[in-house]
Amino acid sequence: MKAGWKRNKNLKPKVILDKIDSLKTITDGKISFSSFEFMEAVVALENMINFPQVAHDLNTSSIISDAVWELAKNEKIECGLFISQVNLNIKKSLAKRDNQYYLLTSISMSDIGIRSIKLNDCIIRFYKSDFPRKFKGRKSLVDSKVNKKPTESNGYIKVVVELKAKSELIAVNESLRTLDLLRGMFNFFANGVSEYIGTEWEPINKVRLGEFHTIHNNFGDVYSDVFWYDPSYSQAIAFKSKNTIAIVKNVKWMITNLNKINRQYKVILTEGILRYVRAFDERNQNVAVMRAWSALECVAAPNETNCDAVTKRCAFLFEEYEYNKQILEYLREYRNRNVHAGEESDKAKDHGFQIQKYFKKLVLFHIANTGYFSDIAEANRFLDLSDNESSLRNARKIIERALKFRGYTA
User: pLDDT tens digits, residue range 55-96?
Assistant: First the structure.
């Protein structure tokens, strides 16, 4: 699949490209662009393009900017030619040789019960005390970027993510994405189901990332120009469980079953889990609720505009269908008020715990039924069935009659 312009009649890339042409100056064969409007136009172009999945971890801003500079020597930049250049730049970026990288960070767990785990194309290793001596420059880089900060989060397990990638930026993006996916699975079994006494601004997630992330080469040297940290970071109490072995077993079961389903099905469930874990990293509970509902929609009704499907499909998973449907309806109504009217609630964290219950039930349903459904669309057709026994039996009778009518049964 290639990059292409978004199919939105209100988006007119030709207008932006014409503007870029008007900002161009050529002096002695050298091209330059004037004013802040040039950067504004490049950002606009980036958001008018649908990038293929393989390009999501590439530096798309550079790909767009390079395409502009490549074509600026022409009298006019044409839309079709521009997209062709973008796809050529993507191809060049993907053709680069893979290198070995290591991301160093930490997670808020005091004991994880395993030394390493493989997820996607990454090997994630855990260390209780210090990082291996091989890795150099992390502390000095952190000290140079952030004043008066301890380098490591107190009580957190050290994490090293090993992978191959085409650049440091891609390595960081893929490492953090994979680690977020793993954290999402751990939080399925670590997070509380409710909170009677707690802090409103404390995130729901128990397993959170450390503050600083550094990327290192195969020799352990740090890349000083790639430094990631969370400016809104707040120290979490390192999670500790008496059932660590059981939690790890459940996480491994989730990983194994995710790897058994078809690619598109896996992409949707993975995206949902990523949205879930990032939602409940939020300290602002009203924001967390909006993002968590988005995670629920991502799995319950992917690529659909049928808003009613989310509440019906999630409620189908529970014995008390009507009761749970009503809970989901009021959660949806609250989320909509928040989005459209900016209305907030001091009960937002309670709502977050409720959405988490339905999201976990839904995702675990899909993972537990690996191999039963051919894709997520078939699974959702199952969830669209009536909760009424009489209606289900009648539907079965009609299908059996149709099979017999068509001569498919003896």
Answer: 887 888 889 999 999 998 888 999 999 999 999 999 998 888
pLDDT in tens, 133-190: 999 999 999 888 887 677 788 889 999 999 999 889 889 999 999 999 999 999 999 9
3-state helix, strand and coil shares in percent for the chain, rounded to the nearest 5: 50, 15, 35
Q: Which residues of 296-317 are buried (b: 16+ CB within 10 A; e: fewer)?
A: bbbbbbbeeeeeebbbbbbbbe
87 and 102 co-located in one domain:
no
Residue 342 resides in a domain: yes
In sequence order, the 6+-apart residues with CB closer than 8 A to the CB of 82 are 13, 17, 45, 67, 68, 71
Q: Which pair of tokens denotes residue 50? A: 């649908």
CA distances from 76 to 14, 46, 48, 64, 154 (A): 10, 19, 19, 16, 57
Residues 6+ apart with CB under 8 A from 368: 257
Same-domain pairing of 279 and 389: yes
Indicate whether 403 and 269 sit together in one domain: yes
Residue 408 one-letter amino acid: Y
- Residues 406 and 264 reside in one and the same domain: yes
What residue numbers bound the domain in which 82 lies? 4-94
Same domain as 311, residue 226: no
HSE, CB side, 13 Å, CA atoms: give it for residue 264.
8
| The length of the chain, given as a count of residues | 410
